[in-house]
Design brief:
Number of helices: 13
Number of strands: 14
Oligomer: single chain
Bound molecules: nicotinamide-adenine-dinucleotide, sulfoquinovose-uridine-C1,5'-diphosphate
Helix content: 25-40%
Order of helices and strands: EHEHHEHEHHEEEHEEHEEHEEHEHHH
CATH superfamily of one domain: NAD(P)-binding Rossmann-like Domain
Radius of gyration: 20 Å
CATH architecture of one domain: 3-Layer(aba) Sandwich
Structural class: alpha/beta
Strand content: 15-25%
């Protein structure tokens, strides 16, 4: 298939582009590298030393003989995106190209507005470009399990049958998102559903849980192909962060009670799920939702798993409960369905002891790059700041004055 990977320089997108290319699909990456600018803005860097995208692509070609096309541009620029879609003519457009950090969206008004404009307008542009230039192309959109929040009933895959005053209907599952970022995904879902109905586009919303891990078969071929591993408070996700914290002897930062329960998956399952969605497209006019995760854990479950893995390696891991900077339930019911991708052939990689050991080993290997001052949360849901600077994407730090020197050092590098 011809598959466009929007956001293919990012964490999930890079691993997916390589996997799809390896499996014989013709792949084009569309990206504007804004994720790398956010690292500069925040004065942070990934634990793993990622290389510039053209260098990554040359290495991929040298190892496999396969080429991945690169289209550099901003998906919120309609002219650029329309041209990219018209020229590449994808069978599937896999859309990862959004601002995906909940804390980033909660920094201040400007970051909230940026997140929603970047995400909602990018997706809207893609819907219009598909309608105009690739009507039969299947949109595979990365959504999030966080769209549903934590209701006190089972979570279904996208839709729920409701009986009300003696009548029944199947309706979109209620959304209770927990940040301006998560809300941007809710807005996307509504726009996509409407376009499937109005224009008979075909789309799959992959409501993905929290991803962990960094190594896939393809990224392991060469260090030049290494993937991101974020551990800072803004972009680092919880299990990756706990492994980095353990590696440098920092107490694990469990927010509040730690009963927050979420769906999780290995990045090797992310890439496979996307391929499954592409090769089993939705029908014209269909808006399909798959819950993309393989297991659910509470934050405290994960902390104990990392503690046990540390013990085997001779590292004494301490677990701290710090005040939760987010507004979220710290103990709640959680039971989310996730059978549709398994029905289509997904064979999950569960979080085994050996996998956790390998995550810890990566954190240990690159521990000299860890800046422990990035662990403690500074963004607070109850108290987002007013605007800090004029322009987004500048190399100026946006969270605190203390980070200025680090941002400058990174920029100088
Ligand atoms: P990431 O930040 O590592 O990658 C996103 C990529 O999109 C970056 O390379 C960035 O430069 C690009 N991008 C962003 N806005 C763009 C724009 N306007 N134009 C062109 N390119 C743009 O994020 P990720 O972790 O790979 O997440 C990818 C997608 O998966 C996101 O939509 C995210 O919401 C979703 N998701 C991620 C996770 C997770 O745990 N990482 C979990 C659930 C869902
Ligand atoms: N948490 C801690 N300690 C930490 C970091 C996080 O207790 O040091 C807690 C958070 O409070 C939250 C949970 O761990 O309850 C998950 O937080 P996270 O930062 O790992 O993930 P989240 O903010 O939910 O976002 C990530 C991705 C996002 C994706 C989402 C899937 O960044 O793009 O949409 O996972 S989901 O969680 O299903 O919404």
């Amino acid at each position: 298939m011809r598959i466009a990977v929007l956001g293919g320089d990012g964490y999930c997108g890079w691993a997916t582009a390589l996997y799809l290319s390896h499996r014989g699909h013709d792949v084009a990456i569309i990206d504007n590298f804004i994720r790398r600018q956010w690292d500069f803005e925040l004065g942070v860097q990934t634990l793993t030393p990622i290389r510039p995208l053209p260098e990554r692509l040359r290495a991929w070609n040298a190892h496999t003989g396969k080429s991945i096309e690169l289209l550099i541009g901003d998906v919120t620029d309609y002219e650029f995106l329309a041209e990219a879609i018209r020229e590449f003519r994808p069978d599937s457009a896999v859309h990862f190209a959004e601002q995906r950090s909940a804390p980033y969206s909660m920094i201040d008004r400007r970051h909230a507005a940026f997140t929603q404009v970047n995400n909602v307008v990018g997706t809207l542009n893609l819907l219009f470009a598909l309608r105009e230039f690739a009507h039969d192309c299947h949109l595979v959109k990365l959504g999030t399990m966080g769209e549903y929040g934590t209701p006190n009933i089972d979570i279904e895959e996208g839709y729920i049958e409701i009986e009300h005053n003696g009548r029944k209907d199947v309706l979109p599952y209620p959304k209770q998102a927990g940040s301006f970022y998560h809300l941007s995904k809710v807005h996307d879902s509504h726009n996509i559903m409407f376009c499937c109905k109005a224009w008979k586009l075909r789309a799959t919303d992959l409501n993905q849980g929290v991803v962990y891990g960094t190594v896939t078969e393809e990224t392991a071929l060469d260090e030049v192909l290494i993937n991101r591993f974020d551990y800072d408070e803004v972009f680092g996700t919880v299990l990756n962060r706990f492994c980095a914290q353990a590696a440098v002897g920092h107490p694990l930062t469990v927010y509040g009670k730690g009963g927050q329960t979420r769906g999780f998956l290995d990045i090797r399952d992310t890439v496979r799920c996307v391929e499954i969605a592409c090769t089993h497209p939705a029908a014209p006019g269909e808006f399909r939702v798959f819950n993309q995760f393989t297991e659910q854990f509470s934050v405290l479950d994960l902390a104990h798993k990392v503690e046990a893995a540390g013990k085997k390696m001779g590292i004494a891991v301490q677990i701290d409960h710090i005040p939760d900077p987010r507004v979220e339930a710290e103990a709640h019911y959680y039971n989310a369905k996730h059978s549709r991708l398994i029905d289509l052939g997904l064979q999950p990689h569960y979080l085994s002891d050996s996998l956790l050991d390998s995550l810890m080993n990566i954190a240990m290997e690159y521990r000299d790059r860890i800046d422990a001052s990035l662990f403690l949360p500074q963004v607070n849901w109850r108290n987002p700041r007013n605007d800090r600077h004029r322009q987004l994407g500048s190399t100026k730090p946006s969270i605190s004055e203390e980070r200025r020197p680090r941002a400058r050092a990174l920029a100088d590098d």
